[in-house]
Each structure stands twice: as structure tokens, then as C-alpha cells.
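Appendix B. One record, verbatim.
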Amino acid sequence: MPRPGPAAGPGRAPPDRTLKSYDQAMTWQVYLSGEIHSDWRERIVRGAADAGLDVRFTAPVTDHAASDAAGTAIFGEQGSAFWNDHIGAGVNAIRTRTLIEKADVVVVRFGEKYRQWNAAFDAGYAAALGKPLITLHPPEHDHALKEVDRAALAVAREPEQVVEVLRYVLSGLDG
């Protein structure tokens, strides 16, 4: 904890003890998990850049075919779809778990069209690690995601709202 500065006295202004922004010396790492069929990640990355936020974004492999084939591309075909998926999930989990563990904030997007079981798993893993979690989904998913949203510290409807949360936590109201 910093020591208080010199007390105000003759010819001295009182020290400014107002906190106008948070420590911006650290680059925040934000993990972007979830659906891969829309531009939500690009909107967050672009919005953060436009806002001048000191953030580094990470994500799972978003090429669906490459992600599915991660295991068999390395270890070869396993003889059944179950085992092909099993080894692929393991290889992908090395990346996913490592990046979630290193993240300062985890954003999980649940899209309209597909059920994202992996996104729900990522949200639970992040919550179990005590990572600040932001969920991003349409109102139609509120009931289905009530437990996930309860673990989240913020629930956003649009990627731009995620950018505003990041802007606030990095810069305060003056950012």
C-alpha cells in the first residue's frame, strides 16, 4: 500500500487522492469463448482497439473442421467417431484450459442457432477458477442460462456492451 504523501501545509496543495482510473500499466488478457458462426469476436476486438484499451484477446481454434480434426491430424484415425472426438477434445483442451487460466476476464458467447456445450463448459471452468465472467447472449436464452448467468459478473446482449464493461474496468468512468 502506498504511503500517504506530505500533508497539505503552507504553500502546498493537498494531495490528490481521487482514483480516476485503474492501473493501466498491465495488459489485460481476455479469453473469448463460444459460438463461431458470427462476427461477435471481431466486433469486440475492433471496439476495444477503437477505445484504446490495453487488452490482448485469446480464443479457441475457431475453424470448426480444424478443431474437430485436431486429434486425428496428430495421432491418426482412432477407429471410431467417439475416440476421434475424444482425442480431439483433449488436444483442444490443452489450449482452452491454458488460455482460460491465464485470462484476466473470460467472455462466453451463446449464439442463437447452435447449442454450445463447450461454451457452457468453459463458463463453468472459468467460474470454478474464480475468473471474472461475462456472458453474451440473446434474451431468449435467459432461462436456459440462468445458472451460468448467475455465475457471471455481467450479462451482455451485444458485443459493444462487452467493450463498455472492459472500458469501465480498465479506465473507470473517465475512460
